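User: Here's a protein and a ligand (flavin mononucleotide). What would the complex look like?
Assistant: Let me lay out the input and then the predicted complex.
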Amino acid sequence: MSTVILYGTETGTGELVADAISDVLAAEHDPSIYDMTEFAVEDLNTDDFLVVICSTYGEGELPTGAEPFADELDEVQPDLSGLRFAVFGLGDTVYGDTFNRGGEIMAEKLTALGAVQVGEHGRHDLSSKVKPQAQAKEWAQALTDVIAEG
Ligand SMILES: Cc1cc2nc3c(=O)[nH]c(=O)nc-3n(C[C@H](O)[C@H](O)[C@H](O)COP(=O)(O)O)c2cc1C
């Protein structure tokens, strides 16, 4: 089993968060990081553990960097039974009801294809005083044991 970190971003925060999560998981899980724009649905391996990082744009929509991968999931409809994944989303509570929808959309798509979400669904709020990398590191620390359970 490998750990694959996939990030979907508009302005790069997601990449910084992916790096921070990778630093924490590296102690036990040897993760690989990919930008969603450079990752094909065919590359998903249901034996892997998938960590999805995704921001939110527009009015509760996916960031540009997540769109091709999300569209490909809709088109290919792969059977993701057996795949375990965790999500850390990025957003801002000033956007009200659409807060952190991007990460939730990705979780819904993967779940609909048979994958199982595990661990806490992380939600960073840009309006909070907490830095995204700091929150992500704490989240990843808790995730370390969840990954090992599989
Ligand atoms: C034009 C614009 C629209 C946004 N829309 C939302 C939104 O609907 N919901 C939300 O939670 N955050 C929204 N955000 C906040 C971003 O998701 C947040 O700033 C995030 O940290 C950006 O991450 P990224 O740099 O990886 O794309 C929006 C930001 C911008 C600039």
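Summary: The longest helix spans residues 132-149.
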